[in-house]
């Protein structure tokens, strides 16, 4: 069955960063004829000093939430008028990252679209970014829109194929985004070491993905990327090719070292130039991670 995007969740806190990502969500909802869920979370941590008097300040919180909800309802009507996108507004109180993931499950979101704060790339990896926290808990795909970067459409998409991943698992959602954006695609063989079996398998997979993308893309090609730092290499390549989107797996496992230096996923989500789609859903039949032991008898059955 063809993958579709019918419910998009856009967390909004009325800051320029979140309104920027909302624009991307609106345009995506219009292309996919999806229902756009706008979520406003009144961050309970703002009232931490008065937690002991939560009962006393509860009416104040409720009044703030109602005012913000009224503003968002007006915004939703304007979105429908200007873009013919149906919206539903959700306003809750709690911890934002938790509430975003919970709401995604409640509305059966196919994708969460949210912005990342400016300057996040300079902060310590010991403190997870809000987007990464949401991605870890989200039941669906997460699209990160960098601050100060406007993406109304994704005209050129990078599709990395890495030896420690399951690149075919990203293909269903990538294909529908490629098709709806009439995009060009570069399937990138990310080469971190010279291993003939690894190189042959990466080529086999990337060529297969290119062929499968050809039917929906304006054009599709493959190219190698030799790098010891995939996140840095892809960031540089995205600038060179003027790509709008990179599609990666939303991996959450980290080694002890990566708690300090950052995992590939964390580094990509701190990219300040390109939008990043972290795919979360897996195909019905599990596709194993690529490793040397699998290469000899590996068959493309997806």
Tell me what you see in this structure.
- By secondary structure, this protein is α/β, with parallel strands linked by helices.
- 41% of the residues lie in helices and 22% in strands.
- It has ten helices and ten strands.
- The protein has helices at 16-32, 54-83, 96-106, 130-137, 171-181, 196-214, 230-241, 256-261, 264-269, 292-295; strands at 7-11, 35-43, 87-94, 111-116, 141-146, 156-161, 184-191, 219-226, 245-249, 275-279.
- A ten-stranded mixed sheet has the order 3-2-1-4-5-10-9-6-7-8, sandwiched between helices.
- Strand 4 (111-116), helix 4 (130-137) and strand 5 form a beta-alpha-beta unit.
- Helix 3 (96-106) runs parallel beside helix 4 (130-137).
- The chain is globular.
- The two termini are 13 Å apart.
- The model is unreliable at 283-302 (pLDDT under 50).
């Amino acid at each position: 069955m063809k993958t579709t995007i019918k419910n998009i969740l856009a967390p909004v806190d009325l800051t320029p960063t979140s309104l920027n990502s909302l624009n991307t969500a609106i345009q995506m909802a219009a292309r996919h004829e999806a229902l756009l869920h706008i979520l406003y979370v009144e961050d309970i941590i703002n009232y931490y000093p008065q937690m002991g008097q939560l009962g006393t300040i509860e009416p104040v919180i409720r009044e703030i939430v109602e005012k913000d909800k009224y503003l968002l309802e007006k915004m939703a009507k304007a979105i429908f008028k200007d873009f013919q996108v149906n919206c539903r507004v959700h306003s809750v109180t709690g911890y934002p990252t938790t509430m975003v993931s919970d709401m995604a499950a409640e509305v059966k979101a196919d994708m969460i679209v949210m912005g990342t704060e400016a300057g996040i790339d300079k902060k310590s990896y010991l403190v997870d970014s809000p987007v990464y926290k949401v991605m870890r808990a989200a039941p669906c795909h997460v699209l990160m829109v960098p601050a100060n970067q406007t993406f109304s459409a994704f005209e050129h998409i990078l599709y990395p194929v890495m030896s420690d991943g399951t690149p075919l698992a990203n293909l269903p959602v990538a294909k529908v985004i490629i098709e709806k954006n009439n995009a060009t695609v570069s399937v990138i063989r990310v080469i971190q070491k010279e291993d003939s079996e690894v190189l042959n398998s990466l080529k086999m997979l990337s060529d297969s993905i290119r062929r499968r993308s050809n039917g929906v893309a304006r054009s599709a090609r493959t190219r190698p990327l030799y790098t010891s730092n995939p996140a840095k290499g892809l960031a540089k390549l995205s600038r060179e090719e003027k790509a709008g989107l990179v599609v990666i797996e939303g991996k959450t496992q980290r080694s002890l070292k990566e708690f300090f230096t950052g995992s590939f996923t964390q580094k990509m989500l701190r990219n300040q130039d390109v939008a990043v789609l972290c795919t979360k859903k897996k195909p019905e039949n599990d596709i194993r991670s690529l490793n040397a032991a699998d290469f000899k008898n590996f068959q493309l059955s997806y």
